Structures are given as structure tokens and as C-alpha cells.
UniProtKB/TrEMBL annotation:
<feature type="binding site">
    <location>
        <begin position="60"/>
        <end position="64"/>
    </location>
    <ligand>
        <name>ATP</name>
    </ligand>
</feature>
<feature type="domain" description="AAA+ ATPase">
    <location>
        <begin position="48"/>
        <end position="203"/>
    </location>
</feature>
<protein>
    <recommendedName>
        <fullName>ORC1-type DNA replication protein</fullName>
    </recommendedName>
</protein>
<dbReference type="Pfam" id="PF13401">
    <property type="entry name" value="AAA_22"/>
</dbReference>
<dbReference type="GO" id="GO:0005524">
    <property type="term" value="F:ATP binding"/>
</dbReference>
<comment type="similarity">
    <text>Belongs to the CDC6/cdc18 family.</text>
</comment>
<dbReference type="Pfam" id="PF22703">
    <property type="entry name" value="Cdc6_lid"/>
</dbReference>
<dbReference type="Pfam" id="PF09079">
    <property type="entry name" value="WHD_Cdc6"/>
</dbReference>
<comment type="function">
    <text>Involved in regulation of DNA replication.</text>
</comment>
<dbReference type="InterPro" id="IPR055237">
    <property type="entry name" value="Cdc6_lid"/>
</dbReference>
<dbReference type="InterPro" id="IPR027417">
    <property type="entry name" value="P-loop_NTPase"/>
</dbReference>
<keyword id="KW-0547">Nucleotide-binding</keyword>
<dbReference type="InterPro" id="IPR003593">
    <property type="entry name" value="AAA+_ATPase"/>
</dbReference>
<feature type="domain" description="Cdc6 C-terminal">
    <location>
        <begin position="301"/>
        <end position="385"/>
    </location>
</feature>
<dbReference type="InterPro" id="IPR036388">
    <property type="entry name" value="WH-like_DNA-bd_sf"/>
</dbReference>
<dbReference type="InterPro" id="IPR050311">
    <property type="entry name" value="ORC1/CDC6"/>
</dbReference>
<dbReference type="InterPro" id="IPR036390">
    <property type="entry name" value="WH_DNA-bd_sf"/>
</dbReference>
Length: 403
């Protein structure tokens, strides 16, 4: 028998559940789309474009709506013979205006003439970028997605929108479409940037359960074989995602995971239990990602708490955790922090949901103190810690001790 066979039971086509699938229609965003469409109208009228700023939490349809409208705009511009270019620059791995400029420049120049991401004065990069834009001519819409990653270093957002009025370019009308997941980014922009960039602002609010139901239902219809989804699966996935984040991305992941669990289990139907299990697994994945991102000090504190968990003496007091932490820190040659700092680490780990904290009252002596224990199962904590080479053999020993 073949090792891989097409899925005849669960998925008809998994692609509509994937992140980068571009749906034919955008659901439940009529108002936002109308505002966005109006803001783009000058392009078709042959007027200079407006700068547009979209903001809202992750997963609420900002990228998908932008791609949808720009695809239509490009088609229509072509049929009216309007000179329009669209440049999309994802900024998720970019941390400064300078890098944005270099990336844009390199997109325009192509691989053979690309410049390196260091070594030029910023203004030179801007000037080279202006020359490329001028050469392109017409209207150039520049989409800077997840632009909040550049933080307070927002020169590019000041420079680009003014290139034309400042006479840096002659033959081109640049327009910026900035997209941000972070509300505070907009508020913290320098006032001079805010005025131009946020000429048209469009807010994308989180989805409610009903809206998510419509979005997920449409994808589910394409993704699953007929009669595979039991009736409460989509509403349940929508309800979970609405309660937590209002993100369609989260809802789609739940639905996808639920289907994968059913398939792995050779079940013929996806039912609400699969969705609940998917929710648990995705939450755990998220928690594990969070643990990986901790600092070495945070990891060492987790090692210490895990050690007490293994010997069944957790919850334990800060003092004991601290002593164990110091032993571990010395063993891997990390400078041990003072006890106050470890207290801060412990409360931060609790805030993230990795530890559970409880307050005890010492009746006799009249004081009160905190005790900590793991809030995640020991096995997954140790598994994550084992991936971190800085911790040397501590996690392996923990793992062996817990067998
Ligand atoms: N209104 C919508 N209609 C259809 N699909 C949507 C809608 N909103 C979000 N999605 C889907 O949800 C996922 C996340 O949307 P995305 O636009 O990437 O979110 P954002 O850019 O706001 O983080 C994508 O797979 C997208 O196709
Ligand atoms: Mg996005």
C-alpha cells in the first residue's frame, strides 16, 4: 500500500484553511471596505493617491482586505489605462526605517543590482529609492504591512509621503498604505508623520462570534468533504476564537487542527470534541512558544521550579526556588541575579501563565508569603527546556528524574 494516499474522508482541499489563501470575497467587512475603497478612488480618477493607515489587532482581516482591494484596483486601472504600480513590503522582520528603505529599494532594483542592508548613509538610500520610484513613474502605492515593527524609528513614514511635494521626485505619485497590529504605534508616531500618513484611517475591530461563523463557514465549505462537519463545529470554533481574540486567523487554525485530529484518529466526522481538543493543543503550542522566548534567567527559574515539581514538593517558597536557581546558574556559568530580581521573574512567569502562584498565611508568625508551582504540565516544560542548549544538561537530568 502507498505510504501517502489522498484524503478521502476529511479534507477536500486544505488550502482554504491556510494563512495565505486569498478568498474571492471578504465577509463581514462592508463598512471598512467601503471606506478603504473611497480612499483609493483618487487613483482611478487620475489624482494623487491618499495615504492610508489601517489598524487593528492581528487576524482581523487587514492584510486580506488590502490584497483584495488592490487586486481589484490593479485590474480596473489596467482597463482605464492608468499607470499604477503596487509594491508590497512586509515589515515583520524589519526593525528600522533604514531597513524598510533598503528592502523597498532592492525590490525595485531586482537581485542583480541590490544593495547591502548596511553601509550607506540613510539619506543616500532614500535618494536611490526616489530615483527608482521616478523611473517607475505614474502612481506607486507602497504597502508597508506590520509597519509597527519599526517602532519609534519612523523617518521613512515622514520621507516617502513628502517625496513629491518636496521635489525629490518629478514623475511619480507615491502613496503609502501603512498597516499596524499595534494601536499604540499610531499614537506614538511623531506629529509630523501622523498628519500625512494618517490622512485616511481605517480601524478593523475584532470579529464577534457571528461574524467569525460566517467567515469560517465559507472556508469550511471549500475545505471539508461533504457531510464531514457536524453542525456545531463551526459555531464552536467561532465562539472560542471570539472569546479569546476575535481573530479569524485563530478560528481558521482551530478548524484546521480539529480536522487534522479527526483525520489522525481515522474518524469519519469532525465533531465538537475535536474542536475542544484543538483548542487545548493550540493553547499549549502558544504557551510553549512563549516559554521558548524567555531569557536564560527565566529558563533557569523554570528549571528550578520543575525540579521541585518532580520531587512532589511544589508549591514551594521563593527562598527555596532561589537557592536551586543559584545552583543551576553557577552550573551553566551564568551570573546569578539577586533574590529580588528572581521574585520579579517569578511573578512575570506567573503572569504569562507558566507558573501558578498562591499566597499563604503563616498563622503563628503572622506573615504571609508566596508559593509557586508549574501551571503547565511538567513534560511539556521539560521538553521545551531541553531544546535550549544554554541550559546544558540540566533539563536532561530533570527529564530523567521525572521518569
Ligand atoms: N473578512 C474576512 N473574510 C474572509 N477571510 C478573512 C476575513 N478576515 C480575515 N480572514 C482570513 O483570516 C486570516 C487572517 O486575516 P489577515 O488579513 O491575515 O489578518 P491581519 O492582517 O489583520 O492580521 C486570513 O487567512 C484571512 O484570509
Ligand atoms: Mg496581516
Amino acid at each position: 500500500m502507498a505510504m501517502f494516499t489522498p484524503d478521502e474522508n476529511i479534507f477536500a482541499d486544505e488550502y482554504p484553511l491556510r494563512e495565505n489563501y486569498q478568498p474571492q470575497q471578504i465577509q463581514e467587512r462592508d463598512q471598512e471596505l467601503e471606506k478603504f475603497q473611497n480612499a483609493l478612488q483618487p487613483v482611478i480618477n487620475g489624482a494623487p493617491p491618499k495615504n492610508i493607515f489601517l489598524y487593528g489587532k492581528t487576524g482581523v482581516g487587514k492584510t486580506v482586505a488590502t490584497n483584495y482591494l488592490l487586486n481589484h484596483l490593479q485590474q480596473d486601472a489596467q482597463s482605464y489605462d492608468i499607470d499604477l504600480n503596487v509594491i508590497k513590503q512586509p515589515c515583520n522582520n524589519i526593525s528600522s526605517s533604514y531597513q524598510v528603505a533598503v528592502n523597498l529599494l532592492n525590490q525595485l532594483r531586482g537581485p542583480t543590482e541590490s544593495v547591502s542592508t548596511t553601509g550607506y548613509p540613510q539619506q543616500d538610500v532614500f535618494n536611490m529609492l526616489y530615483r527608482e520610484l521616478d523611473e517607475l513613474g505614474g502612481t506607486v502605492l507602497i504597502v508597508l504591512d506590520e509597519i509597527d515593527n519599526i517602532g519609534s524609528n519612523d523617518d521613512i513614514l515622514y520621507e516617502l509621503p513628502r517625496a513629491e511635494s518636496n521635489g525629490y521626485v518629478d514623475d511619480v505619485w507615491p502613496g503609502i498604505i501603512g498597516i499596524s497590529n499595534d494601536f499604540t504605534f499610531r499614537d506614538n508616531l511623531s506629529p509630523k508623520v501622523k498628519d500625512t500618513l494618517c490622512e485616511e484611517e481605517i480601524h478593523f475591530p475584532p470579529y464577534d462570534a457571528e461574524e467569525l461563523g460566517a467567515i469560517l463557514g465559507d472556508r469550511a465549505e471549500k475545505a471539508f468533504h461533504e457531510n464531514v462537519l457536524s453542525g456545531d463545529v463551526v459555531p464552536l470554533a467561532a465562539a472560542f476564537a471570539a472569546q479569546d481574540s476575535g481573530s479569524a486567523r485563530q478560528g481558521l487554525r482551530l478548524l484546521h487542527k480539529a480536522g487534522e485530529l479527526a483525520r489522525a484518529n481515522d474518524d469519519r466526522e469532525v465533531v465538537d470534541d475535536h474542536v475542544r481538543q484543538a483548542q487545548t493543543e493550540l493553547e499549549r503550542d502558544q504557551l510553549e512558544d512563549g516559554m521558548r522566548e524567555l531569557t536564560t534567567q527565566g529558563h533557569l527559574v523554570l528549571c528550578a521550579v520543575s525540579a521541585f515539581e518532580i520531587t512532589n514538593v511544589a508549591p514551594v517558597r521563593t527562598q527555596e526556588i532561589y537557592d536551586r536557581y543559584v545552583t543551576y546558574a553557577e552550573r551553566v556559568d551564568v551570573d546569578a541575579l539577586g533574590e529580588r530580581r528572581i521574585r520579579d521573574h517569578l511573578s512575570e512567569l506567573s503572569l504569562h501563565g507558566f507558573l501558578q502562584v498562591s499566597q499563604r498565611n503563616d498563622g503563628f508568625h503572622g506573615g504571609s508569603y508566596y508559593e509557586y508551582e508549574l501551571n503547565v504540565d511538567l513534560e511539556s516544560v521539560v521538553a521545551v527546556l531541553q531544546e535550549i542548549s544554554r541550559l546544558e544538561d540540566i533539563p536532561t537530568q530533570l527529564s530523567e528524574a521525572s521518569q
